[in-house]
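User: I'm curious what two different proteins look like when written out as structure tokens. Can you demonstrate?

Assistant: Sure. I'll show them one after the other, since each token string lines up with its own sequence. Here's the first protein:
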Amino acid sequence: MNLPKDLDFFVMLSSASNIIGLTGQSNYAVWNSHMDGLARYRIAHGQKAVSLDLGTMIDDGILVETAGLLDKVPAYGSLVPVTRAQLYGILNDYCKTSKQILDPDTAQLVCRISGSGDDRKTLVETPLFSRLELDNISGDSEATSLREAREIVRRAVIGKMVHSYHLMPEDAEVDAYAPLHTFCVDSLLEVELCNWIGKEVAVDIAVMEIIKGASLVMVDLTAATRVNSLTHNGL
């Protein structure tokens, strides 16, 4: 990086997502972690730097500019809102020319996260769909047939869209044959949904399989069929 070595300040806007971890956002977390490391590197070489790991920006940025996106982020539970005034206050402090070079332990400012988080159990206790149990489904939810497996997957995906993504109210009537994009599932959420299914149900679903008009019926059929295949093959 060809920059002068006597900069008055060097401030990087990172994200607290690389501290708490967000499902489907590992690539974003990697870049934010890189900025944290760069700040420590510069300080170790006697240069000014700080990486601001910010919570949810609620006055500016993509969350505000994208309809409905801001409502989804608080569902993660650990990101605390950051206002424009709070950000300006932080920048006012770290952009002072009189501020001394930080030490490596203070090169990373973690701003506005909470300790509550999302401590709910994962969708499955073990990565075997045939033993699948859901906290939000009463009674015995073991998948003993393809039909039951599909129903469990469908209800789980709907629960994800209701409680994590806030795409619909809990009591909404869901048309399982409607394309996912009618529920405001954009390309980013499609990637996250595929990753989530892969993690919780232990089967791989490619993003290409659920884009271009895929419905809940198509998603639950794909996942349940593959799990049944694994189960019957003794895997």
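Here's a second, unrelated protein for contrast:
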Amino acid sequence: MTALLYEIIYVWVAAAGLVSFFFPKMGIEEVTVPAFVITLIIAAVIPVLRKSGWTVRLIVVGILIALTVAGVFLYRNDAVREFLYGYREYVYVPLISLGAVLAGEALAYIKPLKIPVTILLIAYMIIAGVKSLPVDKFMILCVSLMIIITIIEEMQRRWIKTGDTDAGKHLVYVFPFVCVTVFFILICPASEDPYDWQFVKRIAKAAYELVLDIERRMTPDGVYDPTAVSIGFSGRGEINGNIAHRRDEVLVLHDLSSSIRNVRLAGKTFDTFDGRQWLSNDPSNADDGIMDTVAFLASVSEYTDVPADLCKRTILTIEYKDLNTQYVFAPLKSLIRPEGADGNPVIFESGDMLWEGKDIPGSYYLNYYRLNSGNPIFADFLKSAEIPSRASYDEQLVDKSLTGEAGISFEDYLEYVERVRQYYAQPVELSEDLRSLMNEVYEGCEDDIDKLDRLCSFLKSYEYTDSPGPLPDTVTDATSMLDYFMLESKRGYCTHYATAFVLLARAEGIPARLVQGYYVTTNGTRDVTMYTSMAHAWPEIYIEGAGWVTYEPTPGYGTGSYWRTEAENSEMVANIGAGYEEYNPQDETEPEEAIFETETEEPEKAHIPWFVIVVPPVSGILFVILFILTGNLIVTFVFRRKDTEERYKILCRQVLGLLEILGQGTKAGETLSEYGERIGADAGEEIGDFIGNLTLYLYAGKEDAKEYEKQAYSYRNALLKRVRKERPVKYLTYFLGFQKVKYGKTVDNA
């Protein structure tokens, strides 16, 4: 019993750590106490089952099979699937428990593992503190207990003791007191805000810069490259030689629609390139973003009666993690009012939004318009877009409750357009060789939109690399930069591609800018974490009327959203034919203003067919029966292959065991003859022959073993019938035990 408890202690410690570590990676934000308790229970049951007999194991296996079959059937029901998703942590609990058992038993029985694992856990806690990784109380529980029990084990191992020297017993006896102590520590409230220890912050900053410098020096060729930087949002416009990927959490996106496949969050824009880096010279402090969005919606309303064909209004919540910047991150075409995002005041600078003051909100939500840029209809819109009329612009101001807001009137918008032409359409001169190349690329293009699409495809044929090396000294302006990248290097990372696209677009007279921010693919999940490695740069093109539009020339990066238009849905339904009259194409599109309307849908009732209830338990029962029958067949086969004496010994053990089930077992110090006289007639007519034969076999000789076997076999069957009639439950347990009676005497010690 002590050995089992010793094993369970380590299993529980491992369970605490695994729950804390893996639940967040499975999309479960917080470990609930019920899920944790169930994990501990299952983790403790597994070692118990491992030490139990076949009867208990078979019953448990049958139950698991029944539950598995039930889960397979029920998971096909949408309502059940949605319900299970809401409690998905309980689905993962058995896997976590199994992992805890494996890890716990390894710690319990492989002594050299304890100290290294404890050191690794301490190192993990230190790294988590430096990196601001989330650490919940269950991980603290795991680390604390592991440290304490390792110290206890090492102290016991080093002490010289006499008598009972089992160190495991000592741990089992003191562990309840350890648990009580740790429990009181865990329930003590902790401050939600970090302690403002400036000296610790300075030490952490110095350590971070030291690590960063080491990373910069540890390039693959071992040569220090002063232009290498860690990828991440910087707000600076340098084109560095090499970039090193980091994976620190910076942002978390919440409340994403399942139809969203990727998100771009712009943070900083640039308008001027000096040959080596990008700068922001736009002097404006106006809310360019909201004017761009309002004008876009006005142009869409003039272009089509179905705005949802081109854009869809979407909500997004952005949470700041380990990111310290004044820039406000937002998608293109956002509706951030002049007073700020989610009530947090902002200021505007060179077309960008920044938080006002030093206080940066922990999270904020905003509305923005996704663009159907993957559908050819959007390119058609761009080709015909033009500055909207005052009436359409003012109508959108009214519709968005922006009437009377300062700095975003139609006149302000026209000034904004002129400023775009001035700062974002700076002329770029191409060399003769590059002009010749671009003429080949643009051959057959009918307008600027065709050229931009062709340019984007052409750049994607170049090579992406994180280590293109620094720009040569010959690069001094836009022309030499383009010649180097387009004609010589033909490789680089996102900033190189975005720079080339912007400059080449300007060479065609198209306003363009470079944008820094983050790009992430969501795969339809509602919440997604952004890391420093997801920092990205891309170009945006200005089309009068449509405003700023994103292009993606960097190899390996996806484009924008796509959905079918209302006309395409209608045509698809018409082509399907009869039998689909109830299909509603609007089911695949989101109404423009759906974000402000919350419809209360009647929850789907989980209709469970009869076979879903019947099949799982029947499957489990059939498995147990089949397993038992197979086991008995194997035992019977093995029994028949034994020699006569071995079969007789087995039958004698079974007879003595069955007599004990009937309450007629042997007593200590009792001889066979005394035993036979005592139970007498209560044991049946054949008891005398059985005792006599067994006595002769043990003390006289074994020549008549064949006859003894026949008599014992007949008596065993008679006793089985009696047990089945008088003790049906005992008979069932006997049968489940593969014809073994654990408390039956053997022939050798009878």
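A detail about the second structure: The longest strand covers residues 311-320.
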